[in-house]
């Protein structure tokens, strides 16, 4: 599936365009760049000046209104489907929401070319992954969690708090976590210069005021929610307030808006998975927004919302099917047994060990080992290390479903 059909010539959705500021760049001679890099990289360039959008009043035609409403209904329907499939009081609903959050975080990270399989991401939660990508994506999971927890108070502090969680999970970036940048950033191929970059962010002294303006826009209650999320995301990416992690933080804000405005209440829809199906269209839409046309980014998000609703429902059904198979495998086990208590949690954490059970479920070591033994004997879990110590168990069916979903996004 492609977004290409979405962006046929159509009526624009005007939005205040970013301004431009003439500046001169000099490549630092002390950073080891070659003479040719210094010559080519030094000279005039233009950085962005964010327009204010706190009071932006979009003029929507009937076609775009219908598209936004259709996509919002699809997301709300996905939320209801998840609750209905599992049952509103099901012990699986919380773990299902968590694995959807991890799936969304992995897709968001993959847009930044950070790829990781479901098993490595689960191992990272156990602090047993050797993959640096897995640890970075796990930090994105925690940033999404932080954004959702702050969804009712979307302001400058919540944005900084979300970024703080994200970058503290990336080794070597602590000094930039939760802090606005104090240097220029750009999107382009040159390491040494912003000249000829696809996008040059605003000068750093403009960032705090621009984010406060964005926060006022996000606080409004008079806009279609999905349109508000799309424009807030595009404006955040224009501002590019941080040294690193802007894309992932910006997509986490989308979910904070969807949760805070109550479009989604029970689960996290894999919206970034929809964006991942055509990243070129997504980045082109951000470029169009900077030039004063918000329609492409709004349509990008309406497509992604519908995609998330359809494929997310299928993912929920497939994971619920794996759990049902496991329940059948446990039929002979007494209902009070520890294995039944652990089973629903395997959706959120399909790779576990005894330490995880003792830390997260208040089990003592004996109960944890008993639960693992029951699940292994029934064929629900497989021990994967073969060791006597530091043993790890996994639910192969759940991992297979999650990896299959991720692979389907790449094929598209």
Radius of gyration: 23 Å
Biggest sheet features: 3 strands, antiparallel
Low-confidence stretches: 1-8
Mean of residue pLDDT values: 93
Structure report:
It is built from 16 helices and seven strands. It has helices at residues 35-41, 62-86, 93-111, 118-125, 132-149, 156-168, 207-218, 225-239, 246-260, 271-276, 279-290, 295-329, 338-342, 354-361, 365-377, 396-411, and strands at 19-25, 43-49, 186-187, 199-200, 351-352, 382-383, 393-394. The strands form three sheets. A three-stranded antiparallel beta sheet has the order 5-7-6. Strands 1-2 form a two-stranded antiparallel ribbon. Helix 11 (279-290) packs antiparallel against helix 12 (295-329). The longest helix has 35 residues, at 295-329. The N and C termini lie close together (5 Å). The model is unreliable at 1-8 (pLDDT under 50).
Q: What's this entry about, in short?
A:
It contains 16 helices and seven strands. With 412 residues, it is mainly alpha-helical. A three-stranded antiparallel beta sheet has the order 5-7-6. Strands 1-2 form a two-stranded antiparallel ribbon. The chain has a two-stranded antiparallel sheet with strand order 3-4.
């Amino acid at each position: 599936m492609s977004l290409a059909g979405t962006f046929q010539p159509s009526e624009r959705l005007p939005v205040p365009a970013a301004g431009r500021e003439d500046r001169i760049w000099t490549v630092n001679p002390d950073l080891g760049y070659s003479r040719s890099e210094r010559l080519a990289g030094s000279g005039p360039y233009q950085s962005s000046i964010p327009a204010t959008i706190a009071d932006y009043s979009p003029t929507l035609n009937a076609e775009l209104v219908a598209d936004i409403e259709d996509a919002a209904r699809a997301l709300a329907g996905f939320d209801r489907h998840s609750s209905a499939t599992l049952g509103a009081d099901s012990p699986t609903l919380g773990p299902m929401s968590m694995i959807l959050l991890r799936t969304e975080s992995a897709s968001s990270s993959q847009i930044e070319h950070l790829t990781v399989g479901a098993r490595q991401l689960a191992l990272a939660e156990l602090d047993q992954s050797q993959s640096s990508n897995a640890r970075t994506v796990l930090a994105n999971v925690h940033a999404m969690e932080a954004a959702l927890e702050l969804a009712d108070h979307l302001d400058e502090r919540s944005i900084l708090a979300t970024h703080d969680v994200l970058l503290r999970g990336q080794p070597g970036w602590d000094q930039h976590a939760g802090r606005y940048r104090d240097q220029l950033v750009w999107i382009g191929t040159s390491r040494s210069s912003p000249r000829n970059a696809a996008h040059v962010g605003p000068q750093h002294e403009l960032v705090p005021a621009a984010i406060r303006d964005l926060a006022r826009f996000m606080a409004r209650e008079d806009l279609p929610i999905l349109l508000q999320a799309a424009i807030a995301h595009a404006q955040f990416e224009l501002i590019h307030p941080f040294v690193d992690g802007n894309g992932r933080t910006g997509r986490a804000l989308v979910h904070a808006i969807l949760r805070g405005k109550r479009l989604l209440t029970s689960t996290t829809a894999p919206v970034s998975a929809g964006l991942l199906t055509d990243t070129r269209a997504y980045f082109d839409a951000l470029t169009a927004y900077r030039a004063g046309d918000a329609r492409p980014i709004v349509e990008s998000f309406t497509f992604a919302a519908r995609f998330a609703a359809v494929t997310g429902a299928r993912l929920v059904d497939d994971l619920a099917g794996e759990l049902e198979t496991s329940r059948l495998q446990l039929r002979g086990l007494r209902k009070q047994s520890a294995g039944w208590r652990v089973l629903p949690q395997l959706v959120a954490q399909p790779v576990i060990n005894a330490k995880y059970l003792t830390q997260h479920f208040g089990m003592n070591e004996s109960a944890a080992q008993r639960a693992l033994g029951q699940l292994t004997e029934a064929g629900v879990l497989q021990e994967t290390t073969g060791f006597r110590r530091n043993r790890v168990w996994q639910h192969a069916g759940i991992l297979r479903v999650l990896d299959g979903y991720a692979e389907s996004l790449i094929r598209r």
